[in-house]
């Protein structure tokens, strides 16, 4: 039952690992590049998994494939528990890329548009 609920959570709506996690996991200076790379690697992993699961089912059987999936689920749950949630600070502050403070001289300088 728990495994079925976890699959429902992964498959419902935009995938968390390819959409949200990739956008928040990387420093802002390289975020868009690595977001695209992580999304691409996730799709490659899904493709490889779709090819390997039928082979594992034929060779090891349903019980072993289900136990392997449960191990992956438990490993993901454990890693999620130990990852620090950056709740509160901005993404730049959490990644250590906070913008320098505005000085009085910079605050008085007019903004020019080109």
Characterization of this structure:
The protein is mainly α. The chain is built from 6 helices and no strands. The protein has helices at 2-11, 16-24, 31-59, 62-82, 91-95, 104-108. The longest helix has 29 residues, at 31-59. The radius of gyration is 21 Å and the shape is elongated. The termini are far apart. The relative contact order is 0.09. The mean pLDDT is 74.
Task: Give the helices and strands, then pairings.
Layout (H helix, E strand, L loop, with lengths): L1 H10 L4 H9 L6 H29 L2 H21 L8 H5 L8 H5 L6
Helix pairs in contact: 2-3
Characterize this entry briefly:
This protein is mainly α. Helix content is 69%, strand content 0%. It has helices at residues 2-11, 16-24, 31-59, 62-82, 91-95, 104-108.
Oligomer: single chain
Instruction: Assign a percent range to the helix content.
Output: 55-70%
What is the count of β-strands? Answer: 0
Helix tally equals 6
| Structural class determined from secondary elements | mainly alpha
Strand percentage lies at: under 5%
Task: List segments where confidence is low: pLDDT < 50 over at least 5 consecutive residues.
Answer: none
| Mean pLDDT, all residues | 74
Q: Return Rg in Å.
A: 21 Å
How many angstroms does the end-to-end distance come to?
Answer: 60 Å
Order of helices and strands: HHHHHH
In one word, what is the shape? elongated
Largest sheet: none
List the main descriptive attributes of the protein structure presented here.
mainly alpha; 0% strand; 114 residues
